[in-house]
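Appendix B. One record, verbatim.
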Amino acid sequence: MKIPEIILTDKEKAQRAKLDRAARPRIAATIVLYSGDRKNPKILMGQRARRHDFMPSVYVFPGGRVDRADNYAQYCDDLPRRTEKILEAAYAPRKARACVLAAIRETWEETGIMLGQKGDWHKNLNHKSWDAFRQANIIPDLSNIEVFGRAITPPHRHKRFDTWFFAQPFNGNLAAASDSHELLNVDWFTFDQIKELKIHRATTMMLRVLKDFLEKPALPSDVFYSRMEYQQYKVSRFPE
């Protein structure tokens, strides 16, 4: 697969120029929610606000970095064994779950969709988003979330993320998705409709990976993995 070229705004270039070395990647996660036929589903995306200093104005999947509170958030049901095994090749079990829980939390923060089941919370994490789950009596559900990719932001950028990409079918009300202060114009788009949106080329790459993943008759035991090593892009599978 061809790696997308790096496109930076003037603001991003100025931010990177202030650093004397490459930023350390922060662990991040995103869930791609899809509805309908796996060969041509509707996919949840939103447009990042212009004020962002990282990838402004482009359409992305909801997601963000893993917070400390995600390590302690309540959840129901375990991760699918395949996803668990892949994540635990990189992290201890608690941190592996935190990646998925962060993606669930970010989906709520950015699109208004809570992924979980009704139930009583027994934890108070003093975290605004997890408090919202607790108040709604919604416990995050990990049982139907599959990992399909991993990508590390190249060192040319002033912010870097080691991002895990998850996919989950969505059977709820599509109209429940809404805009937030993080994402605008949140909606469900087919692959053809996404071609007309302004998206970063790294997102284009992951959409190709997603399409291939959704069309596979059986899930692979590893995932697509993109990063930069010794100033060269490297694409492989994880775990290698």
